């Protein structure tokens, strides 16, 4: 049960942005700018951005965010949807590009302790083709999910258990992006 | 030296919001909503909100954010400015209200692992007079500084060493709040 009276039955972050729309507006605009728009010089696809979000949420053990962003990434990857679980299970061996693997390493460092992002780690990503925008967006996706995860878990929001609920969320996120829900 | 070419000489988060104004806008609006406006039923003063931000940044070892938000908190506390260093050095014994101490405990849990925010921890805060809005804002301040700290450290932004630089920032934050800097 949530730690505070949210006055709605929505799951996860949605219950919080309905409860507090003023901070919710910034939180959703940030997600849209990072997971859809991206930096002008970034080469990351939306499916890859969602995968980084799911990867960080998995590292933080936040089930709601991992499951919903995994579902969005699967939806956006289409016939390559299997990649998502392969990356969550074994990022070192999953069949992804060396560039994306290097960016996932940066995301892992940011999530654990951002001071461990070294010149060496960013040089490896750059050598594999990552742009400044890719590095920027990866760092800020990892940092922002270190926030979203804590917000959702710190207030003990509702976490659905039915996989079908997440598949529906993933399709909505993959088609509509991040738009504020209307209070129910 | 920053890990990416930011094309400006501003310190910390300011260099990042100048580099990428679209995410910067959401990040500053979130800070303004959380550190100034607050939830309608919240009892927290702006000086206390800044203190929670400084406390979390201290826990995450992010010097830029700790120093700047400590300075803002000192400015806003006025003749009680000494409280800030007392809390950073010893939150258990600093002369603050039991309510604020209980909220700092919640902030510490969120920062370390938000799944450790238990019903017991929130019940203690509530018994000391914390409202739902206080608990919400504390959780989201701690969560959002877990992001700001990682963003600033993960890209290795400029961290001034001169205390006078932070005193000037603190006064600006305490008077103007969070407004996007214009590119220099």
Overall description:
The structure is a homodimer of 184-residue chains. The longest helix of chain A has 23 residues, at 132-154. Chain A has a single domain, classed as AhpD-like (Up-down Bundle), CATH 1.20.1290.10. Chain A has 184 residues and is mainly α. Chain A has nine helices and no strands.
How would you briefly describe this protein structure?
Two copies of one chain form a homodimer. Chain A has 184 residues and is an all-alpha fold. Helix content of chain A is 67%, strand content 0%.
Topology:
Two copies of one chain form a homodimer.
Chain A: H1 12-19, H2 21-37, H3 46-59, H4 63-77, H5 82-89, H6 98-113, H7 119-127, H8 132-154, H9 163-176
Helix pairs in contact in A: 1-2, 2-8, 3-4, 3-6, 3-8, 4-5, 4-9, 6-7, 6-8
Domains of chain A, number: 1
Query: Given the C-alpha coordinates, what overall shape of chain A results?
Result: globular
From the 3D coordinates, which CATH architecture of chain A would you assign?
Up-down Bundle
What is the CA-atom radius of gyration of chain A, in angstroms?
Answer: 16 Å
Q: How many separate helices of chain A?
A: 9
Query: Helices and strands of chain A: which structural class?
Result: mainly alpha
The protein's oligomeric status is homodimer
Low-confidence stretches of chain A: none
Mean pLDDT of chain A: 95
What is the CATH T-level topology of chain A?
Answer: AhpD-like
Q: Name the CATH superfamily assignment of chain A.
A: AhpD-like
Q: Classify the helix fraction of chain A into a percent range.
A: 55-70%
- Helices and strands of chain A, in N-to-C order? HHHHHHHHH
Which CATH class of chain A applies here?
Mainly Alpha
């Amino acid at each position: 049960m949530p730690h505070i009276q949210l006055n709605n039955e929505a799951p996860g972050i949605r219950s919080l942005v309905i409860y507090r729309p003023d901070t919710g507006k910034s939180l959703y605009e940030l997600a849209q700018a990072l997971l859809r728009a991206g930096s002008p010089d970034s080469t990351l696809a939306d499916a890859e951005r969602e995968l980084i979000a799911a990867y960080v949420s998995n590292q933080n053990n936040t089930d709601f965010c991992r499951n919903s962003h995994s579902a969005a990434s699967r939806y956006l990857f289409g016939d390559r949807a299997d990649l998502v679980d392969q990356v969550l299970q074994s990022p070192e061996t999953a069949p992804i590009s060396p560039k994306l693997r290097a960016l996932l390493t940066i995301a892992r460092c940011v999530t654990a302790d951002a001071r461990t992002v070294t010149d060496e780690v960013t040089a490896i990503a750059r050598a594999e083709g990552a742009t400044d925008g890719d590095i920027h967006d990866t760092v800020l996706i990892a940092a922002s999910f270190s926030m979203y995860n804590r917000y959702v878990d710190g207030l003990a929001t509702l976490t659905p258990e039915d996989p079908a609920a997440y598949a529906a969320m993933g399709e909505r996120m993959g088609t509509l992006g991040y738009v504020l829900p209307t209070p129910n």
